[in-house]
Batch of 3 targets.
Target 1
Amino acid sequence: MSTPGTPSTTAHSWPARVVGFLMFIVHFTRELVMANIAIAKSVLFQKTTDLAPGFLIYPLKGLSRFEILVLTHSITLTPGTASVMISDDYTELTVHAFDARDPEAVRASIKTGLEDPLLAWTR
């Protein structure tokens, strides 16, 4: 794991990084499409009283500043979520979610859909 502001310690060859980047783009696009569908379903079919927007904390420990930058922008570009604030020590991110009834599910979705593919690219 790298500390904020330092590059990751594991070096990959450039072909591996290119493949990792392309896989990140595929995962991000999938998350983008799925989030658009979920938002459309919520807007069209859910009662406003059933909506539960809210804030949650997402852990950033071990991510470099570049990884934090890409992750926060990816979260904000995905419909239904927005990066709000990074803690002063770069270990926590406050996220606003359109549907925060299950904060652990939102965290797991960010982890598997965005952070893991990002780390496969950058490390």
Target 2
Amino acid sequence: MDNGIKILLSPPLAFLIFLCVSFIIYKSVGSLATKGKPSPGKLKTYTGGEDIPGAKIQFGYKSFFFIAVSFTMIEISTLVIATIQRGFSILGIFYLAMIFISILSLITWNTF
């Protein structure tokens, strides 16, 4: 390949070219769009025309940790089952049953 083509296909320069082309397309299409009239309703949350009062909501980490532990257990059990040797399939079934019981206990623990 010619050195000029190699320079044009280098990732940083290709990114800059793509960025410039995208900006030109953005500006040209943006000039064709109609301009809207400012109104206070545009800044509100859409709720079917109803006014909703604002409320401060604080999320806890309890549900995040529950999902993270469940996901980790499922991923590790998939890895263990995928790498189990022939002749040990009964142990794999027992392992899956124990994982199922563990996740069930997490679900019932999470409801309290």
Target 3
Amino acid sequence: MLQISAQQLAELLSGIARAQAALLQGIETAMPGTRMNYVVPAIQNAAHLWDRPDPSLADLPVRILLNYMSRVGPDMALVTSELERLLDPNAPVAPISRATAGPAPAPLPAPAAGAGDSLDFSQP
């Protein structure tokens, strides 16, 4: 039986994402504006960037593709560590990428209380 390591799986996912990014670059060349107006929002939605900050195994390939669409590209050591975290049931809950992401953003200030200033339209 074939056993694949996390590093090999990371390289395989990276190669697939690189091919997909090349196709998207070709579409962008043929139809300027398509990538930012249509493709990137759809891919960000599929990656669950806002509703699931810690990627699941299904989200990771899409996030690798998003990294290839940026100027920098993915960090293979980080992808490997995320795969190890996702595939190991005994791994810690917090991913390594959180440590490098920096502190959480400060919460938004509460809106000033005033007549007509509230955006809650559920109450009369």
